[in-house]
Amino acid sequence: MKKGLFITFEGADGCGKTTQLNLLCQYLQSKGLDVLLTREPGAKGLGEKIREILLNYDGEVSDRCESFLFLADRAQHIDKIIIPAINSNKIVLCDRHTDSTVAYQGYGRGLDIEQINRLNNIATNGLKPDLTFVFDIDIETSMKRVGDSKDRMESSGKDFFNRVRNGYLDLAKKEPSRIKVINSNRSIDEIHKDVIKIIENYIF
Ligand code: TYD
Fold first, then answer.
1. What is the Å distance from ligand 1's center to 96 Cα?
2. What residue ranges define each of the domains in the chain, with the CATH number in brackets?
3. Which residues line ligand 1 (CB under 6 A)?
4. Rounded to an integer, what distance in angstroms lies between the CA atom of residue 10 and that of residue 104?
5. Spacing of C-alpha 26 from chain mean position
6. In 3-state terms, the chain is what percent helix, strand and coil (to 5)?
7. Strand 6-10 relative to strand 35-39: parallel, antiparallel, unpaired?
8. d(Cα 111, Cα 30) in Å, to the nearest integer?
9. pTM recorded for the entire structure
10. Counts of helices then strands in the chain (DSSP H, E)
11. For 147-160, how does the pLDDT look when each residue is reduced to its tens digit (9 = 90+)?
């Protein structure tokens, strides 16, 4: 059995990845595995302050500044939380990571993707997820799930949503062995079963 895995959960807003992350956590813990649940932006400490700015600041934020705030949060998260957990053989389940910046700031906001890849690499010190789930949903499902109380990122509109979604699908085509796309316009249980099928090849 492998230990010290790094697994990321990705997808456009409202895709249900946090529910799936919690279900997978319960499943792995029921098998006696040591799991760390964490998220970006804003796992804890300084990260929570950066998250507050990113999601709630109501003044103007330039696209490049937004990217650097996500990247600053990531560098802190990698150094202080993710690397120590992997080094102590935990299975790290992370709600959003590098692919979010490529999908949202790259495909969504239109920033240069090669440049984002380089900056991501600096922020992570070269660490890559072992496995990434992309929970793919259409705009109608997303709108139903997100509802009316939207944060700054969720207020970016339909075209933005579709660019982000297509960004994730493109990324998955480029890295099929790391990134697994799961049709998430289905029930929580059906999606969870797909997650388990994939995870069993990695862990057991
Ligand atoms: P959050 O409330 O954590 O939403 P979700 O449950 O959808 O993950 O908000 C995070 C928002 O930040 C989400 O809209 C995606 C966005 N984001 C980026 O734009 N770039 C990034 O690098 C990251 C990590 C998140």
1. 7
2. 5-203 (3.40.50.300)
3. 13, 18, 40-41, 55, 70, 95-96, 100-101, 104-105, 151, 153-154
4. 11
5. 19
6. 60, 15, 30
7. unpaired
8. 42
9. 0.95
10. 9, 5
11. 888 888 888 889 99
